[in-house]
UniProtKB/TrEMBL annotation:
<dbReference type="GO" id="GO:0008662">
    <property type="term" value="F:1-phosphofructokinase activity"/>
</dbReference>
<dbReference type="InterPro" id="IPR002173">
    <property type="entry name" value="Carboh/pur_kinase_PfkB_CS"/>
</dbReference>
<dbReference type="GO" id="GO:0005524">
    <property type="term" value="F:ATP binding"/>
</dbReference>
<keyword id="KW-0423">Lactose metabolism</keyword>
<dbReference type="GO" id="GO:0005988">
    <property type="term" value="P:lactose metabolic process"/>
</dbReference>
<dbReference type="InterPro" id="IPR017583">
    <property type="entry name" value="Tagatose/fructose_Pkinase"/>
</dbReference>
<keyword id="KW-0067">ATP-binding</keyword>
<comment type="pathway">
    <text>Carbohydrate metabolism; D-tagatose 6-phosphate degradation; D-glyceraldehyde 3-phosphate and glycerone phosphate from D-tagatose 6-phosphate: step 1/2.</text>
</comment>
<dbReference type="InterPro" id="IPR011611">
    <property type="entry name" value="PfkB_dom"/>
</dbReference>
<dbReference type="GO" id="GO:2001059">
    <property type="term" value="P:D-tagatose 6-phosphate catabolic process"/>
</dbReference>
<keyword id="KW-0418">Kinase</keyword>
<dbReference type="InterPro" id="IPR029056">
    <property type="entry name" value="Ribokinase-like"/>
</dbReference>
<dbReference type="InterPro" id="IPR022463">
    <property type="entry name" value="1-PFruKinase"/>
</dbReference>
<dbReference type="GO" id="GO:0009024">
    <property type="term" value="F:tagatose-6-phosphate kinase activity"/>
</dbReference>
<protein>
    <recommendedName>
        <fullName>Tagatose-6-phosphate kinase</fullName>
        <ecNumber>2.7.1.144</ecNumber>
    </recommendedName>
</protein>
<comment type="similarity">
    <text>Belongs to the carbohydrate kinase pfkB family.</text>
</comment>
<dbReference type="Pfam" id="PF00294">
    <property type="entry name" value="PfkB"/>
</dbReference>
Length: 311
């Protein structure tokens, strides 16, 4: 079976705290707290698994928290081949303010990675590519990993004719784009940072997306939070707007969208079908607390009300 392989180099435990309002410099008392396994590629694998795919999750992991994370993957029935490192996965704090709905992410850098861990990861990755139709590279790089590491993984996937997705930010995204992955999914802030300019108007966003496609990226999905997303492929651009939802926590919405893009690729969906489902799936996740991901049924029911238009 052609598979979707996900790579999570910097896994995390997401600790979501809720409080009426966060006041820096003061004692803040929280209403409730929850912990979920996180890290972008792991979230992508979780979404795919609950939608009926058979993803294979790769990455680095270590320590007691890492063992618990792997046990969660086993519990969900997700196949995995993680390379062991020393040190614990990071805990990423998500501060959710009930009065404003604002979420602040405070993400740790992650464990230190050594040369031998990179070598083992590359071996595991090469072996997994042999059975992959799509590979999803997602999330930040932990300390010790060169900023062009995704570039290396992209080149190796392309040599094997595997469709490669990149969802990262900052320098790793900028470096990765130079190797022309087939798909990228920046949000607006991430794309603005990579391009070094603001994209305030729709026309600015259209030009940026179309230019990246002309440079050699197959599908550019520019996600816009509650405003939905743009999907650029070749000379085409589709704007998708989700229906209004009651937001609980948008953490994981972008990862759910990436999972939907990967699923659309392996299932041969049209650009319209992919746009509709991936925006709906992201919104379904945003309607759930902590890093809980939208189910197939929740995404399907929202997808009927996603509005599509073209440029
Ligand atoms: N507050 C929200 N309300 C409705 N849908 C949302 C909300 N936040 C995210 N989404 C959905 O999830 C998708 C990805 O979210 P976004 O926040 O843009 O990505 P990221 O998590 O990568 O920053 C959006 O395109 C949208 O469909
Ligand atoms: O690797 P990074 O960039 O620090 O991001 C990791 C964080 O992003 C998440 O994967 C959520 O990402 P999205 O909200 O973009 O879907 C969390 O689970 C995790 O804490």
């Amino acid at each position: 079976m052609a598979r979707i392989v996900t790579v999570t180099l910097n896994p995390a435990i997401d600790k979501t705290i809720r409080l009426p309002r966060f006041t820096p410099g003061r004692v803040n008392r929280i209403t409730d707290v929850r912990s979920d396994p996180g890290g972008k590629g792991i979230n992508v694998a979780r979404a795919l698994k609950q939608w009926g795919e058979k993803p294979l999750a790769l990455g680095w992991v270590g320590g007691h928290l890492g063992k618990a994370l792997i046990e969660e993957l086993d519990h969900w029935g997700i196949d995995h081949r993680f390379v062991a490192v020393e040190g614990e996965p990071r805990t990423n704090l998500k501060i959710m303010e009930q009065e404003t709905g604002r979420v602040t992410d405070v993400n740790e850098p992650g464990f230190q990675v050594q040369d031998q861990h990179m070598k083992s990861l590359l071996e595991t990755y090469e072996a997994a590519l042999a059975e992959a139709e799509v590979v999803v590279l997602a999330g930040s790089l932990p300390p010790g990993v060169p900023s062009d590491f995704y570039g290396t993984l992209i080149l190796r996937a392309k040599q094997r004719r595997t469709h490669v997705f990149l969802d990262a930010d900052g320098v790793p995204l900028k470096e990765g784009i130079k190797r022309f992955p087939h798909v990228i999914k920046p949000n607006l802030a991430e794309l603005e940072q990579v391009l070094g300019r603001r994209l305030p108007e729709e026309d600015d966003r259209i030009k940026a997306g179309v230019d990246l496609c002309r440079e050699g990226i197959g599908l550019v999905t520019l996600s816009l939070g509650e405003e939905g997303a743009w999907f650029f492929a070749g000379e085409r651009g589709i704007r998708a707007i989700p229906p209004a939802i009651s937001v609980a926590s948008p953490v994981g919405a972008g990862d759910t969208m990436v999972a939907a893009l990967a699923m659309g690729k392996v299932r041969g969906w049209s650009l319209e079908e992919t746009a509709r489902f991936s925006v709906a799936a992201g919104s379904a996740t945003a309607s759930k607390a902590g890093t809980q991901l939208g189910t197939w049924e929740e995404a399907q029911s929202l997808s009927e009300r996603v509005q599509l238009s073209s440029c």
